[in-house]
Queue: 4 jobs
Job 1
Amino acid sequence: MTSRLVDAGVVQGFLEAVSPESVPVAMRVLDQIEYDLAGQRRQRELNWSKRGMKHALHNASMNASIQTIVGSERTRTPLE
């Protein structure tokens, strides 16, 4: 296959892709892709938010446990 045939095929494909009939279809496809990506982005942000909340709750629980241990150590007398 010569480069002229390839070039002609590329030109033909491009012209078909940007023909007035195919532009609305392409725009709908792009709109759907953008919609899907926005949904994925929202889901990713929600997952990060959930992870952050779990992390914060875990840290709060650990801090409360440490405070309980430290508090009980402070209330002991040296003979215990």
Note: The helical segments are 3-17, 23-75.
Job 2
Amino acid sequence: MSIAFVANGAKNNNTKMIKHIVLLKIKPNILEKTVIQCLEAVVGLKEKIRGIEDIDFGKNNSHEDKNQGYTHGFTVYFKDEAARYFYLTHPAHQKVVKEHIEPIASDVLVFDY
């Protein structure tokens, strides 16, 4: 296996873009339209929280069978670490977690770089 690490040329971690990857294990009997509503609520945070450059989401479509039950995910692209911190502590983010993510997800995996 070959792995490449890519640096974006930032002088320190405070000025580089941060990618916040969130994977969701959806609870049984949750309708796909409910999952989409959840993910659309996440995307709506871009208009509410400064420092978010972009948000995208999708459903797992890998044929490798290595998703370990995580079926949906989203990525939030932050301007820098300060923007990520602002997002994590922002009331709009906390509301989406409590009202949209927690009711449908049996588990959440977060990976930032």
Note: The chain has one domain: 31-112.
Job 3
Amino acid sequence: MKNPSTMVMVEARLRCVIDVVGPDGNVWATRVLTGTGEPDMGDVEELARIKLSASRVGGRIVLDTVCAHLVELLELAGLPVEMRGKVERREDLLGAQERVEPDDPTT
């Protein structure tokens, strides 16, 4: 058994929720994609594999609650995926707010 003082807690971050949907629109399976740090091309590869597996049996994947960085990577890789729900922006996750200058004209 490991000594609790040497154990490190690592927080997993939500990348997206993946629904595998059949041709009739029924959800066959749901998976949550998480990881530590920012999403990377390994996450894109994982999604590509799931998408390929789903298409081989007549299904498709639909992503929900997708983090903004993953959306950017999917676009960069040229992997088209269906998305629903809102994209989680980094500002939303960090609790940052936009700064407003009093002299700025409103648009």
Note: The first strand starts at residue 13 and ends at 21.
Job 4
Amino acid sequence: MQPIMRYNKRTMNKLTQYKKLLPEKLTLEIRKSKDGLWAKVKELPHCYTQAKNFPDLLVMINDAIYTYLKIPVRYKDGLGMYLPKEFVEELTRRKWERALKELTENVSRKENLKLELTA
């Protein structure tokens, strides 16, 4: 579990400013090379990088994107990381399964329970 980050007003303003620079989604072109993997961000001309394996490539491509957009390194943690859509969907699915399992266990242990439902 990551710690909750607390930022001062100036930092929050900078994060908001830099967040506006980040596209909602990006498309990667990934190719195998003799040294590992090579990736290019289609929407950002001349934004590319390479790495030995896929996890390292994700780190490197995020670094390339932030560098391309001239976002200082110190703001990266507050802005997050680009991840493959399938990866995010799987994490979300697992999170929901875990939450449902915990709720089911809590309900089965109690005789009376109030739940607030939202749409």
Note: Strands lie at 28-33, 36-41, 48-51.
